[in-house]
Amino acid sequence: MNYDILIVGAGHGGAQAAIALRAAKFAGSIAIVGDEPEYPYERPPLSKDYLAGDKPFERILIRPPAFWNEREVAMLLGRRVVAVDPVAHAVTADDGTIIGYGKLIWATGGVPRRLTCSGHDLIGVHGVRTRADVDRMMDELPAVARVVVIGGGYIGLEAAAVLARFGKQVTVLETLPRVLARVAGEPLSRFYEAEHRAHGVDVRLNVEVACIAERDGRAIGVTLADGETVPADMVIVGIGIVPAVQPLLDAGATGGNGVDIDAQCRTSLSDVFAIGDCAAHANAFADGARIRLESVQNANDQATVVAKTITGTSVAYHAVPWFWSNQYDLRLQTVGLSIGHDALAVRGDIASRSFSLVYLRADRVIALDCVNATKDYVQGRALVMAGAVIDPNRLADTGIPLKEMIAS
Ligand code: FAD
Fold this sequence. Notes:
about 25% helix; globular; binds flavin-adenine dinucleotide
């Protein structure tokens, strides 16, 4: 087997790369190798509408199955790439198949970071990354009354919200002094902690997990460093991902926490690109720091950059990061990256459950977190893109629409 373009990973980035290549009239052969059995599907609903049972799997497919056939994109599903030979321009799959490529696009995302303590692999302990993960959880749910979520990040909190809505008794365990500590300012963390508590979720901060308690091979609770065991029929672990890049690193690509890429998403290996969650890139919205972004926006935009580069319109990746999270009736929309902010303006009344946080660094607007405030999100984007210098008191004035501040 040999393809002009071989894409490894049938997720958001991989699917979008093939879509963008065909949209740019790329006429060569394209194949996507994916280790999951499904056609590419949207991952965000896994901790939202899909887990809630509000959207069937068919409705979260990125394109209907026939699309790939029509666009002549070969789908090599249920196969995992285990080695890359950059000299021979070929990869080896776990079934021994060798697949040659002209150009390789590595779009493998990551695997959920696992606990290292005893009991981490017991029945009843779940990560949330794939449809199979969530289907396993859903199968168990009817027999579950108590759930412990380890990790107060977006995925853990979204799952907690769905399960609380189902009437489960949910506890969230977070090691840090607040939830969402790595991605948001303190007012947002406190707001979400209060919302979850108001919905009956026991949010515990500053707690260390010692091990998962067991009976007959099943998880029955989470034991904390102070000896207390929080009873659980199901344990959900949402403590981040490990980028799936080992075959590329083994082949000599530069990287560590992800594979390093340049502005056109090229790795250090000739004819090998990388995109999405697994790609470490210098991001203008993080002051040029090399970071990985875990968002649909980033995977899609990097896929488009690669497609353009391959088809001869080279562009540099310079997309403003954006993200969303749905919990209860709260729609959070974020734009920019708030990491490293040195000032923060609260726009609106947090108690009204419709407000925005505007983050600044060195007087410039760098990010917004907007809760049930889509207008701010839409208008604030321009402020982030421009790095606008605006007085925080003015930003906090809801009487002035953000779009009127851009020229000031
Ligand atoms: P993925 O979509 O993960 O695709 C990678 C694919 O490659 C996977 O199918 C993987 O199994 C496969 N693969 C890995 N290694 C190999 C190999 N060696 N050989 C073959 N195949 C391989 N983002 C948002 O912007 N908003 C949200 O609200 C949001 N919510 C989320 C909720 C959940 C539960 C999860 C898990 C993620 C969420 N994300 C959200 C993040 C978003 O889904 C990811 O950023 C996005 O999927 C990244 O796309 P990707 O192509 O890099 O990786």
